[in-house]
């Protein structure tokens, strides 16, 4: 592995978020991961009031600010939104400020999030990926030796998992979940194999109780 030189490439975990709503300030601590790589981003957490919250899309850097354009979330494909977010580098991460964040119920608040760096390692498989079948859609991002996976089913059910993903030079990987929206998720280590074929598709293969499963992802 090598270490990233571009700004904010890697895996980051939320230290805390300061929320200001109608002049009242509160600080929340939640288990949230955010990944940046190859001009893409993805985050996932369980909101204490609204439940599962996952987003992924384009990330464009410009003079200390990042323009995030959501393409996918826990409900489906997203278009027409952009967020221009000031970034302040910190000793072990960064802070970002989002002003006027509006929720579906009409609430509007300002957020200052502080993020700690987990890893800035780079792998050949970094990026934002999508796999689709008749019954489900899977969005996955790899960056900084971590992963986030969102699975949306045809029954309008969504769940996410995130954790560590250690990959060797041959594409052999060990995955361990750190958190999930599914309360019954497993923290057991899983071994899998990754490869990128000539069509630039990511192929993920793993065996579970002797049954081999292969998933094909396309780059987003």
CATH superfamily (homologous) name of the largest domain: Uncharacterised protein PF14869 family, DUF4488
Give the averaged pLDDT, no decimals.
Answer: 91
CATH architecture of the largest domain: Beta Barrel
Helix coverage percent: under 10%
Query: What fold name goes in the CATH topology slot of the largest domain?
Result: Lipocalin
Order of helices and strands: EEEEEEEEEEEEEEEEEEE
The largest β sheet comes out as: 8 strands, antiparallel, barrel
Strand proportion, as a percent range, falls in: over 45%
**What is the count of distinct domains?**
2
Radius of gyration: 17 Å
Strand order, main sheet: write it out.
Answer: 2-4-5-6-7-8-9-10
- Count of runs of 4 or more consecutive helical residues: 0
DSSP, total strands:
19
Structural class: mainly beta
CATH class of the largest domain: Mainly Beta
Which segments are poorly predicted (pLDDT under 50) over 5 or more consecutive residues? 1-5
What form results from the Cα inertia axes? Answer: globular
**End-to-end C-alpha gap:** 23 Å
What does this structure look like?
- The protein has strands at residues 2-3, 10-21, 24-28, 33-37, 40-47, 51-62, 65-73, 83-90, 93-102, 108-119, 121-122, 127-132, 136-143, 146-153, 158-167, 172-180, 190-196, 202-208, 211-219.
- With 220 residues, the protein is an all-beta fold.
- The protein folds into two domains: 2-119, Uncharacterised protein PF14869 family, DUF4488 (Lipocalin), CATH 2.40.128; 121-219, Lipocalin.
- The strands form three sheets. The protein has an eight-stranded antiparallel beta barrel. It has an eight-stranded antiparallel barrel with strand order 12-13-14-15-16-17-18-19. The protein has a two-stranded antiparallel sheet with strand order 1-11.
- A hairpin with a 2-residue loop joins strand 8 and strand 9 (93-102).
- The two termini are 23 Å apart.
- Residues 1-5 have low confidence and may be disordered.
